[in-house]
Structures are given as C-alpha cells and as structure tokens.
TrEMBL record:
This is AP-4 complex subunit epsilon. Residues 804-821 have a biased composition (Basic and acidic residues). The lineage of its organism: Eukaryota, Viridiplantae, Streptophyta, Embryophyta, Tracheophyta. GO terms for biological process: intracellular protein transport; vesicle-mediated transport. Adaptor protein complex 4 (AP-4) is a heterotetramer composed of two large adaptins, a medium adaptin and a small adaptin. Residues 741-759, 793-803 have a biased composition (Low complexity). PANTHER family: ADAPTIN, ALPHA/GAMMA/EPSILON. Subunit of novel type of clathrin- or non-clathrin-associated protein coat involved in targeting proteins from the trans-Golgi network (TGN) to the endosomal-lysosomal system. Gene3D superfamilies: Leucine-rich Repeat Variant.
Amino acid sequence: MEQLRTIGRELAMGSQGGWGQSKEFLDLVKSIGEARSKAEEDRIIARELEHLKRRLADPDVPRRKMKELLLRLVYAEMLGHDASFGHIHAVKMTHDESLPLKRTGYLAVALFLDERHDLVILVVNTIQKDLRSDNYLVVCAALTAACRLIGEEAIPAVLPQVAELLAHPKEAVRKKAVMALHRFYQRSPSSVSHLVSNFRKRLCDNDPGVMGATLCPLYDLILEEPNSYKDLVVSFVNILKQVAERRLPTSYDYHQMPAPFIQIKLLKILAVLGSGDKQASGHMYTVLGDIFRKGDTASNIGNAILYECICCISSIFPNPKMLEAAAETTSKFLKSDSHNLKYMGIDALGRLIKINPDIAEEHQLAVIDCLEDPDDTLKRKTFELLYKMTKSTNVEVIVDRMIEYMINITDHHYKTEIASRCVELAEQFAPSNQWFIQTMNKVFEHAGDLVNIRVAHNLMRLIAEGFGEEDEGADSQLRSSAVDSYLRIVGEPKLPSSFLQIICWVLGEYGTADGKYSASYIIGKLCDVAEAHLTDDTVKAYAISAILKIFAFEIALGRKIDMLPECQTLVDELSASHSTDLQQRAYELQALLGLDKHAVESVMPTDASCEDIEVDRNLSFLNSYVQQALENGAAPYIPESERSGVITVGSYRSQEQQEASAHTLRFEAYEMPKPSLALATSQANMSTPPTDLVPVPEPGYYKEDHQTSRSQTSGDAISGEFGVKLRLDGVQKKWGRPTYSSSTPSSSASSQQATNGGSHSDVGGSTSSQVRDSSYGSKRQQSTEISAEKQRLAASLFGSAAAKADRKAPASRKTAKEPSMEKATASSAAPQPIKEQVIPAAPPPDLLDLGDEPVSSNPPSADPFSQLEGLLGPASATPVVSGTPATSSSKAPDLMSIFSDDVPTGATSGSTDPTLGDVNLMNSHKGAAAKKGPSLQDALQKDATARQVGVTPTGNNPNLFKDLLG
C-alpha cells in the first residue's frame, strides 16, 4: 500500500511538472483518460509500447528517464497489456544505489513478476543484500518485494535475515518482517514452524501497528489448532477492551472509530477460540456488551464492527443477553433502507436462528420485503435464510417460491443449486406423496438436465412403492394421477432427458393399469417420444422397454393387441441399430410377442417392481442340470489354480526368482510330476453353464457411488467346453465392500409432523398491524398498512398461531425402501429433528453482569500494553495433515454374454444405470450349452453380416430366443 501511495504521489507531481516528468508522459495519461472506447485505449497503449521498445533499446538512457519509462511500463501493464520486454530493466533498477530508483525498481518488479518467473532468481541476491542495509527504507522495500517474489524454494535463503529483523529498532521494519513471515507461513508452513513463537512475542510489541500485524498470522495458526492458543483468550479480550476504550493514538482512528480493523480481527479470533468453550466464552461477554452499547450505526465501519460482533456471538457459547443484543442490532439492519445493510441483516439472522429459531418470527415482515425486493443478490440471500428456516408447516410455500424463482433465472449454476435445495426440502418435509410428485415434476420440467439422475430413480421408486400402507386404493390413485399428469406433459417440446425417462417408465408400468387408457393409445405416445428423440439412446431404451411391458401385460390378460405401424417401424429401426442395447430390446419384444399367456406371466409379472428378490448364492437350482451334464460326459470343474497355463501370484514370484538365479548354479531337485485329476462327482466342484442374470435391487440415489462394483473369483470360471464365463454380477461378496450397501432413507415417514414454536400474536388484526408498523421503521409509521397477502405469506412462512390452528396434520410420506426390499409399514409420527443443532442457552447468570463489572477510570499509562508482558510462552503445535486414499474398481463387460448378462433383472426394478432396461427374461439360455445346433455366436455373426449388406431383419430372430424357457 505504501508503494502504491508513492507511485500515486509521483504521478500527481508529474502532472504538475515535478520530478522531471516529460510532456510525453503527461500526454499519455491525458489521452488514456479521454479515450471513449476500449478499442481506442488499446490503440494508444499499443503505440506507446512500440515507442517504449525503441527507447529501452537505447543504451544511453539517463537514469531519471529510465525511471519514467518504467512508470509508463507499469501503466501499460496495469491496463492489461504485455510489457514483459521491459521486465529486465526493472530488475536492473533494483540494484541502483539511489533510494527513489531502487524503490521504483522494486515496485515494478513486484507488479511484473511472480514467484514462478525465471527472473526472480536475479532478485533474490539483491533482496538479501538490501535486508542488511542501514537505511530502514531500503529494508522495508526489500521486505515488501520478498512477500511477493520469494517462493517456497527461496524461503531458506532469506528466512534467517527476516527473523533477525523482528527485533529491529524501527517499528515499520518489525511490522513488515511479521508480514513477510506470515507470507512464508502461508506458502510453506514447515519452513517457519520453528518461528511461530515469535508471533506471541510480537503481540506484546510497544507499537500497535506491529501488534495489529501479528493478529493476522495468529488467526491462521488458531484456525489450525485452537486448543494451543486458549491461554491467549484473556490477552485478546484485554487488547480489545483497550482498543474499544480509545487507548490507542488517534492516528489509528477511521471515521471516528478506534482502530476498527484491529477490532474486527480480534472478534474473528475470539469467535474461533470461544466456539463450544463455555469458560473461554465467559471472558468475552463483558467486552462484547460494551461494543454493542458503544456501537455506531451511522457509518459503514461501525456497522461492520457490529456485524462481526453478531458473528462472534453466534459462534461462541450462547448467552441470552448477548443473543438479545444481537437480535436488536439485526433488527436495525433489516429496517434500514440500504440494500447492503439488509443483506447483512439477512445473513446475521441466518446465523442467529441456528441458536434460537424463534428470533426469525419477530422479523417476518422484513424477510418478506427482502424476498420481494428487486435486488437479485438480496433475494438470493433471503432464499438461503428461508432454506434454513424450512419445516413441515411452511415447506409448501417456501418450495413453491423457490421453484417460481428458479423458472425466471438463467444462471445455470445457481439454478442447479436452487433445484437441489427444492429436492432436499421436498424429501425431508413433504406433507404428502402427491405433493412430492407434483413438486418433482415441476423441478424436472424446468431444470431436469441440472438435477442428478438419482433423484429420478428415487421418484420412480416412490411411485412404485406408494404410501407404504395397506391402502391399495390410495396407491392406485397416486399412480393414476401420475399417469394423467405425464400424458398431459409428454407432448410438450424440449423436455429434459431425465424427465422423459420417468415418463416412459411410469407409462409402461401403470399406463393401462386402471383401464382408463387403451394400450394402443399409450404405445402411440411412447412411439412419439422415441421418434422425437432420435439421438438420445437412453430415452429410446426406456420407450421400447415400456412398450414391451404394455404388450406383456395385455398378453397376460388374454387380450389381443395389434402392432401399430409406427411401433413396427420403431422395432425395425432399433433391430438394426448400432447400439447393442437397443438392438437386444427390440429382439426381446419380437420374441415376447410369440409366447403364450403363461410364459409371458412368468417372464414379465404384473406390478412386480417392489417384489422381494432372493439371491441364491450357491446356485442350487442348477444342481440337477450339472448332475445330468456329468452323466452325459461333461468335464468336471477344475479349480483355476490347478489349470494348466494359469499364472498365479506364486508363479510370478517363482519366475522372478528364476530370472534372479539364471546365472547361478542350482542344486535343488526337480519337482515331482503332479498326479492326474480323477473325475470328481461332487457338485461343489462342478462347472455351471451360463445362467440368467442375478437380480439386484437398486441402491438409493442418495449414495455417492451408485454403480455396483463387479468382481469375479477364481471359482467363477467355466471350463473350456462351455466357452463363456459365469457372471455373478450383483452377488454379495463375503470380503471387501458389500454389493448390497445399506441406503439411508431420504426422509422418515414418522418425522413429517414437526410441531411449530409457541403461539404467536395474530398479525391480521388492525391493532397488531399498527404495532408492527410502529416497530418496523420511521418511514413505515406514516399510515402505511400491511397488505393482507403479505400477512398470509408471513403466516405461512413463519407459522403464526392462526395458521397452526387451521392447518391439518400433514400425511406422512413413506420412506425409501431398504435394500432388502421388505415392505415397510406405517409407523407412529415422531417429531422431525431440527436440521441445525440448537445449543441450550442456559449458562450461569453470573457470567454476564454488564452492570456490575467495574470499569477502571484511571488514565492510561505510557505503555498501554505493559500488562501483557507476562504473555510470552512457547508455541506448541504444528499442523498435521492426513489423507485417506480412495480406491475404485471396475470390470469390463463380457462381450460374449451380451444377450445374457447385459439384460437388467427384475421387470420393473428401476436400475440405477439409465442405459439398462427393466426386462427379465428368466432362464432364457437354460440348457443352451448342452443342446446341438447353431450357436448364439453364429446367429449374431449372420445377423451382423446381413445388416452390413443392407438387409434389415424384420421378423423374429430364429436363433436368438428359440430356447426361451427351455
């Protein structure tokens, strides 16, 4: 800052003709100031840079003229232009013996270079020499440059000299030495860890400027390890008390406030040290009360100190009188006409309601005014406050307001944040399932691509599970209303992909369940969705799977359904698709149409998305097949470790040992040959043929890692005769991370009814309206009446007594199902735990007695900080950084099992992977390995060859599903 003032004075004196500035420099400054556009300014700077290049190339430039040229380079650099060609001249000027030229050189170098620049190495030696100078101004200039240019590698070169300057007789040098050490600590804490005790010593410096500079590194150290500095609480409180009592020189005053920036830094430090510490907080209450009483709201710096006091009170152990004083100051902020003060009031109110939620109800009308303010920044801050105040009684109003605001903004980053908050609040405080579904529909419709896809999976699960009670009629009504709403929405243009996936899934599961809509009508709508999104394979996959479900349900009911032309066209198109997933879904639909009623009921059961799925880890249902295969001459299972050609870890080690001892004599005997394996008849050692997929329930969307890790053990390999490998995707592992991870419910059904606070006065009457007007502000007293709409909104948000009397108990919403997929029963209602933990405000009353604390009226001594001389003590802590490695695993899919392993299990299980369908063809290849005839691989090759020559298969694949259901 001092260097910037210097260049400002030089520029000002140059405009007056002083310091030998030329007319060219004055004309440059004038022309830039008079430029009417950025393009004109750029042309002026470009001409100036060309002129400077020619002038700096002249070896006979006088020293004073070189100083002016560097200032002109600084001017161009600060306007955003590249002046790197003159950086070396700035480095040279730092070697000059003249103090003005040296300081100008340091100023230019600090602006031109950073710690990673190649020219910095030329400055380090100069800084080392100048730190030993007898002129304290030279030392100060070198310390200022060291803060900017000395990197982590160069810190050891200058650190001893900087540490010695902490005892320099000049206070300006000591202050800049503390600042340099602080900067070194920020860049490399380990380099200056042995010098942190010097910060404690400098806290007792006779100069208040050095003491104020020491507060900055101490704040960083206290953030790292607060417990090591608890002994300084009394010292900090004494310093703050002396500063607030104006014991510092008047030169530290700013707008008639005594050293406000030192006060703010001390309040930040006390907030950290008093967090959760009742004893330490007890020392702070008196001085905080004094600051509140002496607070000046007429200036911005006075309001800043009061705001920092509120932040300190909200962080330390709570006290009723302090909370009352903070609430009163917050009320003054909210009543102000300044948007900046209102913003501070909203932020302070958000901090206080974490301790006492009832404080917000006293300022409900002020919050409503901020919510309706045209200032977008203030409105966003108000939404953050409402997000913290949300409970079951006002969630509908707050979420509706958030969605309305989300629709009207274009900032995608903040739109994503608002959408995620709407989803979180709806899950936690939803009064009913119908309201939750309608809210999710609005969120997906207006911000679908910005919402996590796991939210869509949870919505589908909720529709499938219903209320979780035995009332099937209510669940059917819920699904029917969802189908009606989706049929109205599906025709709208530009719907998000995630929302279309939900629509297709719901229409496929429940589109024809109540008989209100015909199967042909639903299939036509799904075909329209697939045709409108030709480039989105995920939407087309959901659409064709939904069509398959509708055909299966109709066949199972014995109804005859004709294939619509547009549906046939879609199936033919997907059968020739380059996507193997879409191709398989189309073939599955063609195969399903050729099955009888009983087969379809087994393959695609009706409304089976919530059925419990049991996994047979031992695959006992294959025992009879394995025994029959053995009797027919099949080869028995051979453990992987005993197979020829299989390299294990032991073989790798033996190979390394052989390579190490290749050039030495070997004296050990040859290994004995292994006996031939007898034909084992035990079922435990038998190979299993390719089976159907093992169904896995969908994990909750709220898990961060929702992809199921796959593993394959040595016992899962299949003998060479069968040709393909057994896939155990989804089977729970005994060791390692389990596949079935327990999912935490997003919200509890028993926690939807949260009792509001105590009763509040009715704000609808004229008497309370007048009281509210008189307490809200001087401008509101001029016969301004509060509108009825604003009163209703405040009653909805803050839960007045009248609103609580009329509101019915919200219906509980069922929680998400556990991974075991067991049916959850309705439980008794329990109060919803408050999101932010409320600390009980019941300290002993003698901790705060603002009137009984004797205040010394004696005049200050010559040294106001002499009472802190006993403060010195060793520093004890060095930060410890620890990390936790994270691992992840993935398994590439088996290409040979494309028609057996990539088909998702469960007819309507709602897989977390959107590219997977929900068709479960049970045992589609059972016994395929033992049969004769063309193999699946040959059929696939023929089909691919036919497609390459331009032939599109339109009928059922004769080889793909011929052995369906055995």
